[in-house]
Give the backbone structure.
Amino acid sequence: MKYLFKILIFTLCVMSFSNCKEDKKEEKVPEVTKEWIQLFNGEDLNDWIVKIKGYPLNENIYNTFRVENGVLKVSYDGYENFNDTYGHIFYKKSFSSYKLRLQYRFIGNQVKGGEGWAEKNSGVMIHSQSPESMGINQAFPVSIEVQLLGGLNEDEERPTANLCTPGTHIMVNGKLVTTHCINSSSKTYYYDQWVNLEVLVIPDSIITHKINGKEVLSYSKPQIGGNYNILKAREGELLKEGYISLQSESHPIEFRNIELLEID
C-alpha cells in the first residue's frame, strides 16, 4: 500500500510538471525583432532639414552643417561673427517611442561672438516642434534638449547629457519641475574624445539619458510649458511625439553613427 501511494504521488508530480511546461509554452509570445534605422548615412544631408535663426528654412548659411569624412559636422569656418545665429538640423520625420544613439565630440575653438556659456556646448533636441513651424527669428524649437557639454578646465566638473527645457516642463518623482536646466550625474569629458550618447524615449512617459552605457538622468511626462508664447494656449499638454534635431550654438562639434530603434 505504501509503495502504491509513492507511485501515485510520483505520477501526480510528473503530470503537474508536464502541465506547467505546456502552459508556459502556450503563454510564450513571439519576439518582434526590429532593426536600427540609420538616420545619418555618412554621405549627405538629404534626409535632414536646416533651420537657422534669421534665415528661411533650409538656408544653410556658410555651410554650417556639412558632411566630411563620414561625420556630420557643425562648423563655423565661414563665419566672421556668430551674431546669435543659433541653428538646428532636423531629421525629416517625427518619432514617438524609441531609442536614439549617437557619438559626438567637440573640436576646435568657439567662433567669435559666441556666448561664454556656449563654449563646448551643444545639444540633441527631442520631442521637438517641426522645423516648418518655427518662426524665422526663433532661436530654439519648443522641445526637450539633451544638453551636451565638454570639459573646459581639468579642475572643474561639467557633466554632459543634461536636460534643458525650451518651452517645456518635465516631472521628476511625481513633481513638476520648471527649472530650465538640470545637470546629469555623468563625469566630465575633456578634449576631443568621442562620447556615446543613448536616449530612451517613451511617449508622454519616461525619458532616460545614458553616457557610455551608464544611465545619468531620468525624468517623465514632458509637457508644454514656460515662456514660449507661441504655444501658451497648450500649456500642460503632454508631448507624445516630435522631431529630433542637432544643435548649432557656436562651438564646432561632430556627430556620427546616428541611429534609432522604434519601440511599440
Notes: Residues 2-27 form the longest helix (26 residues). The CA atoms of residues 223 and 238 lie 4 Å apart.
